[in-house]
């Protein structure tokens, strides 16, 4: 399988393969496989793919997705910038529409992205630290998020495509033994 890092192509394939991705999601949900076994396979593919991607050359997540920050994360982030949390909130944040008592940064790309790198890396929000969340387990419960990240993050794109090759065949039980 060709390893894909071209962001325009990945975005295009996200649209083109939308139905296929949802069919694979449905397939995974019905697959007779333990959560832990599937997670182990995803960890392994994630490790393999991550080694081949330089996130600082991409930073597409910081250009496309706004992290959710709680009050503790706002405080930590402001401390890293040496500004007050109220200045950070007033100048750079809006209330999250999705999660109560949480904030998003008010712009995309993220206002703290400089030369494709996080200018406040040590103090970055949990969402940023954890992204693209493929090493966090319960993969099968997070497939909507995975499909949404598929067209943004080359790691997610390549892991999901590799998973299709490994599992979307009649001999998946045989192929999974390799991991
Ligand atoms: S805080 Fe840093 S890691 Fe998070 S989106 Fe902004 S630039 Fe990216």
Short description:
With 179 residues, the chain is mainly alpha-helical.
User: Stretches where pLDDT falls below 50 for ≥5 residues?
Assistant: none
Q: How many β-strand runs?
A: 4
Overall mean pLDDT: 94
**What is the string of SSEs from the N terminus onward?**
HHHHHHHEEEEHHHH
Q: Helical amount among residues, as a percent range? A: 55-70%
Q: Which percent range describes the beta-strand content?
A: 5-15%
The set of bound ligands, ions and cofactors reads: iron/sulfur cluster
Judging from the principal axes of the Cα atoms, what is the shape?
elongated
Number of helices: 11
Largest sheet: 2 strands, antiparallel
Q: Assign the structural class, choosing from mainly alpha, mainly beta, alpha/beta, alpha+beta, or little secondary structure.
A: mainly alpha
Strand order of the largest sheet: 1-2
Estimated radius of gyration: 18 Å
Measured between the Cα atoms of the first and last residue, the distance is 18 Å
Whole-number count of domains: 2
SSE topology sketch:
Layout: H1 7-16, H2 18-30, H3 35-50, H4 55-58, H5 60-64, H6 71-81, H7 85-92, E1 93-95, E2 103-105, E3 113-114, E4 117-118, H8 126-130, H9 143-150, H10 154-167, H11 172-176
Antiparallel strand pairs: 1-2, 3-4
Helix pairs in contact: 1-2, 3-10, 6-7, 9-10
The structure holds iron/sulfur cluster.
List keywords for this structure.
179 residues; mainly alpha; two-stranded antiparallel ribbon; 11 helices; 4 strands; 55% helix; 6% strand; elongated; binds iron/sulfur cluster
